[in-house]
Amino acid sequence: MTRRHNKNSQDPIRNSLLQKSISAKKDEFGRSLSLSALILIGVVVFSIFFFVLSRGLMTFTLDHINPFNFIFGTVWNPTSPDANGNLQFGAMPMIVGSFLVTLLSALVATPFAIATSLFMVEIQPNWGKKIMQPVVELLVGIPSVVYGFIGLTVVVPFLRNIFGGSGFGILAGTIVLFVMILPTITSLTIDALKNVPNHYRESALAIGATRWQMIYKVILRAATPGILTAIVFGMARAFGEALAVQMVVGNAAIMPNGLMSSAATLTSVLTQGIGNTADGSVQNDVLWTLAMLLLIMSLFFNLIIGLIGKQTNISKGKR
């Protein structure tokens, strides 16, 4: 047996077959690198969630603030005690303000984004590629503070002249966010439309559908999951936007009673207060709780859109 083993170990052909080739080693290195990147991203995301949740829950565990009163309370006054000597931490005005500007801006931006995308992909692709595509890409790259300055110097005075009041409020925030998320939704909607196979278009036209029937009945339905993904990306940007909204929304932590009412969002209160509170104080803890709510709401949006996209795919399979 020993003599046979020595003979096999000295066989160069067998040894060369058993050794890994350079290509196999590169493949193994690539898999290891990809797995390492995936694990690193997972650890970073888990760490962020753990850190924000652990700090956000301190309001309820250490400061003993009632969670129900915190979420559904309508008075936010973390620095000045009321007549009974109690500080008031009601986050509902900021929650309502964040949802209002996000939903309204997405509601206004989505039809414009879909119409622009259809023009660039289905109606005039040459013009879209040469003219509209650079414009959309330019809008994506504009910093949010520029949008905020434009909103402060153009939108707010315009609304003040038309509707009266200060001009600051939900409507000003909605207009600024509409412009900000429009290129995001448009870019992703364009990708969704381009991903629709050409034989869908050819089949629809072959059975006698008009161009608009093809777009409405076939293209938009086939691209629905991608369009929903575009909307959620736009809403995620709107929901997490802080600086531009803070410059035009009015920053009043009160329940909004109309589109021209001054309001505050979760992000605007966070950016205003996080640098003015001592670490470990109750005022700092409640801001971390607002950050936790912001994180949970962003996940909620992603979950809802994901469920809608899943239901759309199931419906397509049934048809």
From TrEMBL:
Coiled coil spans = none
Membrane topology annotation: Multi-pass membrane protein
> What are the TM regions of this chain, as residue ranges?
33-53, 95-123, 135-156, 162-185, 218-239, 286-309
Which species is this record about? Oenococcus sicerae
Recorded GO cellular component terms are: plasma membrane
Return the PROSITE patterns for the record: ABC_TM1
This protein's major location comes to membrane
Q: What is the protein named?
A: Phosphate transport system permease protein
Q: Where in the cell is it found?
A: Cell membrane
